[in-house]
Every structure is written in C-alpha cells, then in structure tokens.
Design a protein that fits this description.
By secondary structure, the chain is of the alpha+beta class. It has one domain: Beta-lactamase. A 6-stranded antiparallel sheet has the order 2-1-11-10-9-8, sandwiched between helices.
C-alpha cells in the first residue's frame, strides 16, 4: 500500500506539472545527420562548448552539486555526439566500471533485433522454439502462447508477484494470464532472452554482445551472471554514452550498420502494445498519454517524464541508472550512481526532477 501511494502521488504530481507547463513541440524521429562518432580504440572524444550551444552555463554549474547530492557517480551530456559535459564524483573516474541494472534491457532488445536480422530467430515465434518446452510450470498450451515478442514487451503473462522475480526456474515461472493480455515488469521472462540468443546463435551471450555491438562501437563491458541467474552488464560511463549514441543514430555507428533494420528499431522505440503505452521493446518511452510503473498494475494518465521532451526514449535501471536519448535535440544523457532517493526499479521521481533542472540548462 505504501509503495502504491508513493507511485500515485508521483504520477499525479508530474501530471499536474505537465498540465501547467507550456506544451513542448518536438519533431518525432527526425533525421540524425551531422552526428560525430568518437574513434574506436581511442580515448579521443571531441567536445563542444556550452556557450556555442547557447545553453545556460550558470544553471549547468548549479546542476553539479545537485547531482553529487543525489549520489551520482558519473554524468555525461552529448550534443550531436560531442561531449558538452563529463563529470565524475568522489573517487569515480573515466575508467571506473558500474552496473547498468535494467538499463541493460535495452541492449538486449537491440541484440534480439540483430539476431532476427541475421535470420537466427523470429520474434513472432514461440519462445519454446528456442529454449525447449517445459521452461515454465504453465500448461503447455499456455506456455506456447508466449513469443519472443512477448518477452520484449513484458507481456508474457507470467506471474510477477512471486517472491523472487529474478528466478528463471520453471517452478518460479507461473501462469497469471494469457500472453499478450497483461503488462508486467518481470525480470525472469526478460532474462531468458539471453538463452534465446545463445541457442539461436550458438554463441555465449557475452560473445554475441561483444561481436555484434561492443567491439563494433568501441565500448567496453561484460555481462556478469548474478547468483539469482540475472545477467547484469558492467561498463564505464563513456561506454554507456557510446551505446546511447548508437541508439540516437537508430542502430548505425557512423557508416557501420549495427542493426540494419529500421522497422525493428522503430518498433523498439515506439509503443509496442496497447497495455502500457510508454513501453517499446525493453525501452521506456516518454510523451505518451498514459504509463505504467514496475510492480504496479495501475495506469497513470501521464507520460513517464513530463518535464522532458516528448520524443525522449530511455534505458532505465534500478537505482537511477539512466541513458536518455532525445532525437529532436540530438541529445544523449548518461547518469549512473547509487539511488538518488528511495530505490526504485527503472522509472523514479528523480527522472522528472532532473529534467526540470535540465530544462533551465538546455532551453529546449
């Protein structure tokens, strides 16, 4: 009840803020011309000045103590691929590694698209085609309703109310509803996409990630299996920024096609089902008329981040790991660290609070 009240107050609050703010006009999915891509195998990364962008430098400087007070370890803003600001706090530095938490879901979503483009799988096929039957404790007729696309969209129908939501044992994967009829933020169903990719490709998940994305865009990073079988990606902040830049350019790194499937990328970054309008393929979407939050079945009449541009989409992880992409502004913004407030999965009140401050910096 307490958690429900917190979410309700948060979404009601941001809905009120949104109604009072002047409507922000944004161009949806504009071309991403004139982007800069930092070289692979180098620490070189071109910068652009705040003054050249016409941003408010005073407000940007005021942002840093706020971020530090919110347990931030690293914060990066890219404009057209160039670094506007890159700040580290405490002992954290450019080489420090940190966990992505559920922000890594968006990486998995892109890897599934690559595997489909390579003809290794089809997201409309049932999951059991790739990992075998009996992967749940559901009746076979119900299990066979679950497709890879249901895993991507959080509509597997598996019960997210069990004690260990990360458990991928069949005994933990229990029937709640028919696939496609209920949206629920469920880690276990998502985690098994790793196995789908491994079995479809014949490669380990780390090797597939390294060959298809990591080494192609010059990032570092490694997926580490936790004791509860959840795969978590670790990297430095600049690697997160490189991935954000890849997303900004719709799956293409400079002249190299990483995904090479515009239809899939569009599906990943637009509403994927009619249950939670603010969710694509393992990616959070802003600017929608309603949204849902992890752990709740409540539909809130508000976008996830009213203070942010409507075309923003994001990879969001527990304890406020953030990769924000704003195509209309050619922006990528990275925030990693400990929880900025009460620990939450993915979306939190910090998102809207931070973007309220970013509005005064960027003047969009």
């Amino acid at each position: 009840m307490t958690k429900l009240l917190i979410y309700i107050l948060f979404f009601l609050g941001v809905a009120l803020i949104n109604s009072c703010d002047k409507e922000i006009q944004t161009e949806i999915n504009p071309p991403t011309e004139n982007l800069y891509f930092p070289p692979i195998g180098s620490t070189e990364w071109l910068t652009t000045s705040v003054s050249s962008l016409g941003w408010n430098e005073t407000e940007l400087n005021n942002l840093y103590p706020y971020l530090e007070g919110k347990n931030t370890k690293a914060f990066i803003i890219l404009k057209r691929g160039k670094i506007v600001t890159e700040k580290y706090f405490g002992t954290f530095n450019q080489d420090s590694l940190w966990y992505w938490a559920s922000a890594g879901k968006t990486m998995t979503g892109l890897l599934v698209g690559i595997a489909q483009r390579e003809g290794l799988l089809n997201i409309n096929n049932k999951t059991s085609q790739y990992i075998g039957t009996g992967w749940t404790s559901m009746p076979l007729t119900k299990e066979n309703l679950i497709t890879v696309k249901n895993q991507l969209t959080m509509t597997s129908g598996l019960d997210d109310g069990i004690t260990d939501k990360d458990c991928t044992l069949p005994s933990c994967l229990q029937y709640k509803a028919d696939a496609g009829t209920r949206w629920a933020y469920h880690n276990a169903a998502y985690t098994l996409l790793d196995k789908v990719i491994e079995n479809a490709s014949g490669m380990t998940y780390n090797n597939y990630f390294q060959q298809k994305i990591r080494d192609q865009i010059g990032m570092n990073g490694l997926w580490i299996k936790t004791p509860n079988s959840n795969n978590v990606l670790y990297s430095n902040a600049r690697s997160m920024a490189r991935f954000g830049l890849l997303l900004l350019n719709k799956g293409k790194w400079d002249n190299t096609e990483i995904l090479n499937d515009n239809l899939y990328f569009e599906s990943q970054t637009t509403t994927s089902q009619n249950l939670n309008l603010s969710y694509g393929f393992l990616t959070w979407l802003n600017g929608k008329s309603s949204s849902m939050a992890p752990t709740l079945q409540t539909i809130f009449p508000s976008p996830i981040i009213p203070n942010a541009p409507a075309d923003l989409y994001a990879a969001l992880g527990k304890n406020d790991q953030k990769i924000y992409i704003v195509p209309s502004q050619k922006l990528v913004i990275i925030r990693i660290g400990n929880a900025a407030g009460t620990p939450q999965f993915a979306v939190s009140g910090f998102d809207n609070e931070l973007w309220g401050k970013l509005k005064t910096v960027i003047n969009y």
